[in-house]
Each structure stands twice: as structure tokens, then as C-alpha cells.
């Protein structure tokens, strides 16, 4: 709130309790060259007394639509950090932050407005014009259009001498249609068709491992679709990806469709058209559902109408409302690194499970600086309480055996693993994580038993057992296994698409 002699603000999105951030010396449209920066890095610059650097990085984050950057720029302007106090700019930044979803009260804005003179209010309008909701939405629309155009253009073939290895993605050979992916009984009450897109690791032997729900409709776990899709994927068979003719492990996306027996599909063209009308009219629920359906390809399946060209507008509107799944879709749709970074962080902070999963995967084999580590620990704690079992399993691995020992919390890893077991006893992925947590706590005898049970379950699914048996030998000799688990390996390229 605004106070005599200063301005104080509660902690923001991932803001350390430090106050913070604007340099009155830069104009509202003075944007530095595009380069990926993080919120915590900007905070670190401020703490180090580099006001110009903090201002530069917060401006870049504000340009990408991060409301907390706007809030901190407002505080810097009101305090005069790095320059003269500028209450007009402070008013503009705080108004922009509110438009982008920050919790700002009428009283805060009114106090700043009363304190600003006529010139200051003109400055506020200039800031809002460039960083408010309408301006950010326009920039995002232009960015999406540029990315669509760039992705449509076929890449130039490199000279023969510099050609990369020939890479052939994994292909789906068979998806079981018996018990595993039958229509879940819990979903019969709703009678809806459903689709779940799963991200999975296809091993060199064509077996699926480490499946993660990337997106789904209907949303959530209540109807049982997501659980059924994960079981189905574990029993599917694939031809492995190859590089220069040699099989390699890789990630793949696969969509599993569910249709209720002897029921009419409810998502016919008319229903989807009505949904589009609601979304285009600004209905928040309609926007969110349209984004999910579009991302899963269902709008194109049921509506083949080239006149519907506003899906990007609906996506941006929903993301700016703070809907996590829309923020996640937007982060995947953008191609400028800074924009991707900002919206991926927003999605993860707002609870988008797929984005949180990928951020956690990226931490396992890295050594982080202190500011990064603090940010990732907050995300790990959020993921541990998100209610998604796959996400919790990944947290178990990181807390048990991450390369960066500052991320480890072996006691928490064991507690989380034990909380998963009652519902995941038949999935070897969870048993492997549990064994790692036991070993990390020095319980090698129990880790051996858990690893042996994981191997037995993996054998029933046809997995390659060599790496699992090597880990078992480590536990038998009282050692932790330093091998990076498959789900944390960074493999390029990443296969996209639905069932082949």
C-alpha cells in the first residue's frame, strides 16, 4: 500500500520478501534487446544494488506480460530506486499489474492517483498504453502470428557436410482395446466422449515408460479417464526412434480416445459451435474449454469451419485471466525464448501439471545458483501438494537424488513416496522412485526389496531389465545409483502428434 515516505508491497508471484523495483531513468517503451531473463534474476540484481540492471530485466518481463514485474516497477518508481520518485509511473505500473491479474485494491490505486499531479497521470496513461492488458494481448497476438508463420516455413536444408544425424521418430504399433482403456465406469454418469494426451518415454525396445498426462478433456481425474489412459499407454507397443539406424530412447506424445458404449457423442458440431460462441463472447469457462479442446484437436474434429479464426484471441484472453492450462498452451505456442519462459513460469505457478512436470525434469541433472535453487524449491513444494501422482513421483526422484544436493530432502522424498504406494503398487515407475528414496535414507535392505518388486512388475510389462538390475546391484553393495533416470534425460528431438 502507498504510505508517506515509501511504498510497500506484499510478496508477488515468486518474489522474495525484498520490496522492490523501478528505475525512473528509463522510459516506458524502452525495451532492451530480447534475451531470456528470470524473475529471481531480476530480484537478485536489485538486491545487489544494480538498479539499472533490475529495471532492464523487469521491463523485459513486463513486456512479456508478467504482472509481478509491473508491481515491482511500480514500487521502484514510488521509492525512487535508481532515479527520482515518479508517482505517475508508479500509478501506471500498478494499474497495468491489476489489469494483468495482480491483487491490487481500489484504495492502493486511489492513493497513488491522489498523490500524482497532472503530468504524472499522463505518464501513467503512457505506461498503461504500452504495458496494460490490451497492449500485452496485442503483442501476444502478433507473436503467435509470427510463430505460426515461422513454423509453417520449411527449414532450409543444411549443406551435406554439416547435416545432422538422420532421426526417425517412434511410431505407435498397437494400442490395447481390451480392459485397460475401456470407458471408465466413473465417467458413465456424464456420458461424455473423452481424450487424454499422454507424454511418454519410448525405450529402445519399443516399450512405454514414465507416462505423464499432458492435457485432457474432461478436465481432472474425477471421471477416471486420465488414470485409464496411463494404464493403456503402459500396455501399448511402439517401434523405437532411430538415429542413423540405431534405436534410441525418446519422448513421444500419444492421444487416447474414449467413447461411451451405445451413447451418442455429445461433442457434435452444433455443441462445439455454441461453445465457440460463448468463448468468443468473453465467457471465462467457454474460453478455457475452447482452449483445451483446440489444443487436443477436438475443435477441428467436430468443426471444419475455416471462418473460425479467433482461436488465438480466445487463448490469449483465457491465459490473461490466469487459467493455468491456457497459460501452458500459450507457452508451447510461442517461440521467442523470453515469452516462453514467462508464460511457462506463470503456468507452473498457477498449477499447470504438465508444465510443472517439465520444469522439475529440467532440474534433476543441473547445478543451480542460489537464486535459481530457491525458485525451484518453491516449485517442488508446490508440485508435491498439487494432487497429481505423476508429479509427486518426479518430486520424489529430485528430492532423493538430484545432482544438486541443495535440492535434496531425503526424508521428504521418503514420506512422499510412501504416500503414493497404496494406489500405485502395480506401476514399476513408482516402485523405482520409492526404492531410490529408501536408498537415499540409507535403508539399502528395504531398497533392495522394493527394487526387486519393481523389476518383477517391469518384466510383466516387457521392459528392458538391464538398467534396473544394475541399480539393484548398487543397492546390494550399499551404494546410491548415480545414473540419471530415464524420465529426466534430455533427449532431442521431441516427437509431437497423436496416435500414428
Structure description:
The chain has 500 residues and is mainly alpha-helical. The protein has 3 domains: 2-131, no CATH class; 167-333, 2-Layer Sandwich (TolA/TonB C-terminal domain), CATH 3.30.2420.10; 366-483, Serine Threonine Protein Phosphatase 5, Tetratricopeptide repeat. It has 21 helices and 10 strands. The strands form 4 sheets. The chain has a 3-stranded antiparallel beta sheet with strand order 3-8-9, with no helix packed on it. Strands 6-5-10 form a 3-stranded antiparallel beta sheet. A hairpin with a 2-residue loop joins strand 8 and strand 9 (246-248). Helix 2 (51-63) runs antiparallel to helix 3 and helix 12 (311-320) crosses helix 13 (324-333). It is globular. The N and C termini lie far apart (56 Å).
Could you give a short description of this structure?
With 500 residues, the protein is mainly alpha-helical. It has helices at residues 39-47, 51-63, 67-79, 87-99, 106-115, 118-131, 133-152, 225-234, 269-280, 284-295, 298-302, 311-320, 324-333, 337-349, 353-363, 370-384, 389-401, 410-420, 428-440, 444-460, 466-476, and strands at residues 2-3, 6-7, 167-168, 171-174, 194-202, 208-217, 237-239, 241-243, 246-248, 250-258.
Topology of this structure?
Layout: E1 2-3, E2 6-7, H1 39-47, H2 51-63, H3 67-79, H4 87-99, H5 106-115, H6 118-131, H7 133-152, E3 167-168, E4 171-174, E5 194-202, E6 208-217, H8 225-234, E7 237-239, E8 241-243, E9 246-248, E10 250-258, H9 269-280, H10 284-295, H11 298-302, H12 311-320, H13 324-333, H14 337-349, H15 353-363, H16 370-384, H17 389-401, H18 410-420, H19 428-440, H20 444-460, H21 466-476
Amino acid at each position: 500500500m502507498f504510505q508517506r515516505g515509501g511504498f510497500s508491497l506484499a510478496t508477488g508471484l515468486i518474489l522474495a520478501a525484498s520490496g522492490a523495483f523501478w528505475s525512473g531513468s528509463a522510459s516506458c517503451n524502452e525495451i532492451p534487446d530480447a534475451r531470456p531473463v528470470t524473475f529471481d534474476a531480476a530480484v537478485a540484481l536489485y538486491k545487489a544494488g544494480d538498479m539499472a540492471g533490475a529495471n532492464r530485466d523487469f521491463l523485459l518481463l513486463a513486456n512479456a506480460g508478467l504482472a509481478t514485474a509491473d508491481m515491482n516497477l511500480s514500487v521502484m518508481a514510488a521509492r525512487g530506486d535508481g532515479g527520482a520518485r515518479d508517482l505517475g509511473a508508479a500509478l501506471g505500473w500498478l494499474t497495468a499489474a491489476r489489469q494483468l491479474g495482480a491483487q491490487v485494491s481500489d484504495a492502493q490505486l486511489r492513493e497513488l492517483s491522489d498523490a500524482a499531479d497532472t503530468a504524472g497521470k499522463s505518464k501513467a496513461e503512457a505506461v498503461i498504453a504500452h504495458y496494460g492488458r490490451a497492449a500485452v494481448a496485442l503483442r501476444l497476438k502478433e507473436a503467435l502470428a509470427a510463430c505460426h508463420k515461422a513454423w509453417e516455413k520449411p527449414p532450409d536444408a543444411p549443406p551435406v557436410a554439416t547435416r545432422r544425424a538422420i532421426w526417425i521418430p517412434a511410431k505407435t504399433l498397437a494400442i490395447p482395446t481390451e480392459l485397460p482403456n475401456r470407458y471408465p465406469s466413473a465417467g458413465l454418469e456424464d456420458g461424455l466422449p473423452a481424450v487424454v494426451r499422454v507424454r511418454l518415454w519410448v525405450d529402445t525396445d519399443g516399450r512405454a515408460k514414465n507416462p505423464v498426462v499432458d492435457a485432457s478433456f474432461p478436465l481432472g481425474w474425477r471421471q477416471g479417464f486420465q488414470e485409464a489412459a496411463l494404464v493403456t499407454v503402459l500396455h501399448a507397443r511402439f517401434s523405437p526412434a532411430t538415429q542413423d539406424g540405431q534405436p534410441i530412447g525418446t519422448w513421444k506424445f500419444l492421444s487416447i480416445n474414449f467413447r461411451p458404449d451405445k451413447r451418442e457423442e455429445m461433442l457434435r458440431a452444433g455443441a462445439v459451435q455454441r461453445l465457440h460462441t460463448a468463448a468468443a463472447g468473453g465467457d471465462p469457462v467457454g474460453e478455457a474449454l475452447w482452449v483445451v479442446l483446440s489444443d487436443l484437436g477436438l475443435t477441428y474434429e467436430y468443426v471444419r469451419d475455416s471462418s473460425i479464426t479467433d482461436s488465438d484471441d480466445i487463448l490469449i484472453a483465457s491465459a490473461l485471466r490466469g487459467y493455468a492450462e491456457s497459460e501452458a498452451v500459450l507457452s508451447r505456442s510461442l517461440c521467442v525464448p523470453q515469452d516462453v519462459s514467462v508464460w511457462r513460469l506463470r503456468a507452473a505457478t498457477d498449477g499447470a501439471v504438465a508444465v510443472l512436470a517439465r520444469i522439475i525434469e529440467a532440474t534433476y541433472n543441473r547445478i543451480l545458483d542460489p537464486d535459481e535453487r530457491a525458485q525451484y524449491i518453491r516449485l517442488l513444494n508446490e508440485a508435491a501438494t498439487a494432487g497429481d501422482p505423476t508429479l509427486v513421483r518426479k518430486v520424489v526422484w529430485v528430492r532423493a537424488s538430484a545432482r544438486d544436493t541443495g535440492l535434496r530432502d531425503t526424508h521428504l522424498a521418503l514420506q512422499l513416496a510412501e504416500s503414493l504406494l497404496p494406489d500405485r503398487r502395480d506401476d514399476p515407475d513408482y516402485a523405482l522412485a520409492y526404492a531410490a528414496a529408501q536408498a537415499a535414507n540409507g535403508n539399502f535392505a528395504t531398497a533392495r526389496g522394493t527394487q526387486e518388486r519393481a523389476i518383477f512388475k517391469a518384466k510383466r510389462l516387457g521392459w528392458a531389465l538391464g538398467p534396473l538390475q544394475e541399480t539393484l546391484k548398487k543397492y546390494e553393495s550399499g551404494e546410491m545409483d548415480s545414473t540419471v533416470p530415464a524420465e529426466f534425460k534430455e533427449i532431442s528431438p521431441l516427437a509431437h502428434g497423436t496416435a500414428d
